[in-house]
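Hey, I was hoping to borrow your eyes for a little while. There's a protein on my desk that I can't quite get my head around. The fold is given in discrete form, as structure tokens running alongside the sequence. I'd be grateful if you could look everything over and explain what you see. Here's the protein in full, and shout if anything looks odd to you:
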Amino acid sequence: MSSSTIPPVRVDRSFRDEMEESLTENETLSSFVQKSVRAEIDRRKARQEFLERGLQAIQHTVEQNDGIPAELVIQRLQDRWTAAKKKHGL
């Protein structure tokens, strides 16, 4: 597989200076940019997969009609909060 380049990006001199100052020993600006872009791509993929799993879970709940009404969830949380406050004397 042949390599390719990322399009050049214009930045303020001060921002470039910050990037260069943040480099670790033996790290190049190119490797830093490549790692940063890779991390962002991975983060976006993980977010998309998370959203897809959430939508699938919602669809499953709707199809199975086995969800818990929001009002019940909120009431249970309020009950837990009240119990915790009493326990700690608040």
Notes: Residues 29-64 form the longest helix (36 residues). The chain is about 70% helix and 0% strand. The mean pLDDT is 96. The chain has one domain: 13-87.
